Amino acid sequence: MATLICPRGHDDPGDGSLCVHCGEYLRKAPPPDTGASAGRPAASPAPETCAEPGCGLELDESGCPLHGATVPLPHEREGGAGASWTGTSRDFGAPGLAVVFPWASYPLGVEPLVVGRSVGAAGELAERMLEHGRWTGRDYGNVSRSHAVVWSDAEGTWIRHLSTTNDTLVNGHALPHDEPRRLRAGDVLTFAKGLRAHVAAQPEGHTAGSS
């Protein structure tokens, strides 16, 4: 099994995929340099590029100059499969709306979409949020582990505020705790102080299982 190291140089980074000291994704240790290149300065790493298909522009501190804050997943940065990922497909109740975050669009369905920092509760959304924060320098630490939940059913699309420490706002208005609020296309959502998203209509013909 390949040895994993922390890109920031922390010793004993742990056995998982993230460094236990800084939270960065661990990388494979380079092979020992025993050939003719031994003693030469290490080559500069290749610049990070936008993961959008057909783009390839170098990322700056704000993300891609063309596509904005598009942050690739770790396996995308290594050139693996999944570079065209755009969201999470769901079983639809009342299809047509999605929550659009800076890094991805999430179609809404009867399966709840949990917004929060807990990977156990919010799954891939939490991973992408934390990764986006590291890439852009944005602080999402005041988003609760399970901050809010959004879903659609036969009667409409709804959001319920779960956090007991920080607000969830719809169009600037704080929601009461644990009371469903109906959402419509164009609504702006704010979770705590640092995370914003908006509700948007899905393209015509989008169905569960499409990308």
Task: Spell out the blueprint of helices and strands.
Layout: E1 4-5, E2 27-28, H1 74-77, E3 97-100, E4 105-107, E5 113-115, H2 119-122, H3 124-136, E6 148-153, E7 156-161, E8 168-170, E9 173-174, E10 181-183, E11 188-191, E12 195-201
Antiparallel strand pairs: 1-2, 3-4, 3-12, 5-6, 6-7, 7-10, 8-9, 8-11, 11-12
Q: Profile the largest sheet.
A: 6 strands, antiparallel
Mean pLDDT: 74
Radius of gyration, in Å, reads: 20 Å
Tell me the β content: 15-25%
Could you explain the architecture of this structure?
The chain is elongated, with a radius of gyration of 20 Å. The strands form three sheets. It has a six-stranded antiparallel sheet with strand order 4-3-12-11-8-9, with no helix packed on it. A four-stranded antiparallel sheet has the order 5-6-7-10, with no helix packed on it. It is mainly beta and 211 residues long. The longest helix has 13 residues, at 124-136. The protein is built from three helices and twelve strands; from the N terminus they run ββαβββααβββββββ. Mean pLDDT is 74; it is low at 70-94 and 205-211.
Question: How do you describe this structure in short?
Answer:
This protein is mostly beta strands and 211 residues long. 10% of the residues lie in helices and 21% in strands.
From the structure above, extract its key features.
single chain, 211 residues, mainly beta, 4-stranded antiparallel beta sheet, 12 strands
